From TrEMBL:
<dbReference type="InterPro" id="IPR011042">
    <property type="entry name" value="6-blade_b-propeller_TolB-like"/>
</dbReference>
<feature type="domain" description="SMP-30/Gluconolactonase/LRE-like region">
    <location>
        <begin position="188"/>
        <end position="276"/>
    </location>
</feature>
<dbReference type="InterPro" id="IPR013658">
    <property type="entry name" value="SGL"/>
</dbReference>
<feature type="compositionally biased region" description="Gly residues">
    <location>
        <begin position="41"/>
        <end position="54"/>
    </location>
</feature>
<feature type="region of interest" description="Disordered">
    <location>
        <begin position="41"/>
        <end position="65"/>
    </location>
</feature>
<dbReference type="Pfam" id="PF08450">
    <property type="entry name" value="SGL"/>
</dbReference>
<protein>
    <submittedName>
        <fullName>SMP-30/Gluconolaconase/LRE-like region-containing protein</fullName>
    </submittedName>
</protein>
Amino acid sequence: MTKRTADRHLPSGAAARKRLRPVVAACVALPALLATTGFGSGGAPGSQGGGSGPSHGPELSFIDTHQPPEDIIALPGTSWVVISAVTGADHPGGMNLVNTRNEEVTPLWPAEEDIAYTPDLEAFPGCTAPPDEALPATHGINTVQTGERTFDLYVVYHGGRESIEVFSLDVRGKQPTISWRGCVVAPEGAIPNSVVALPDGGIAMTKFWDSRSPLFPQLFSGEPSGSLWTWHRESGWAEVPGSQLFGPNGIEVSEDGATLYTAETMKQRVVSIPTAGGDPTELAQMDFLPDNLRWTEAGTLLTTGQEYVPVTPEQVQACAVTGFDVPDSCIPGFDIVEIDPVAGTSETVFSTRTTEYRYTTVAAPVGREIWVGGNAINSIAVVSGLHRGHSAQGGHR
């Protein structure tokens, strides 16, 4: 069982919790969005909102995990959260489940027990071989709810092939079960980063860069390094016209499927692009390099990312390798930005310069909290006291 710890050096099994209270002024409320999202200076976790009780500032605590949680998504209507870790020097990668009731972290894939690998060739033709459990190199994840407490789980996979893997996840029983449905191999040379299922049954992904050339020269060449791609069973992969971008990263889709949203990391902004193709529209500019995107149930997007001074190939590489342990150049802590894609507004809803967490990649709504993941530390940073309602959103907006 994994608990929120009071000290990273506590003995195994200790159940104390670590809470940090950043300066309240570091939490900037969203006046335009507060009425609909509940973010901002609100009740503490467990409060019902409203009333005349004492004001509580935001709190930061941590859930210890076994690997750095690069991506996080809550399963709506359940107590379960899926986290994905990329392969690193000291961790294998793969996916885990977190039970929000007791914060227990358990393996999801590879699983502790054998799972069914039954390819759905009608949905995913040509994919007969399952992903290699010995190479659990997962990355971006997303879900679609298929029934009461059942979900399809879409996973970017780098282990032996560049692909989108699709699993079925059933959390109706006491112990969730997972089975593999199939895969879609990425276009030649494409290194996928994030994925989202389309309402019409297709898939959209970000191609962050091309494997046929070195990464960092592409990111800093002054030319787009990647683009958005869509896949349909009948037609296969197609590049979205006009979507050539500088480090396209996190991706989400509108409820009607007409619009894709992506973090253009190297331009430090989030943009929207018509799924059928067209010019990108800037929705938000930020001081950090935005990474993954997550919907809230209010129809806003959350993002976080990494901050470098300066943003150069050498600095980005140095910070990534050291885990942001260069204090003058690799900025510690993180910001969370909320974007209203309809109103075209955005605001920082939380900011901290804590040295306890860095290299953030995802800010995901989980109940009344925001769970922040990253690539540097084996824990989830939990921001509470901002949110008075359930915001986890699965499927499409």
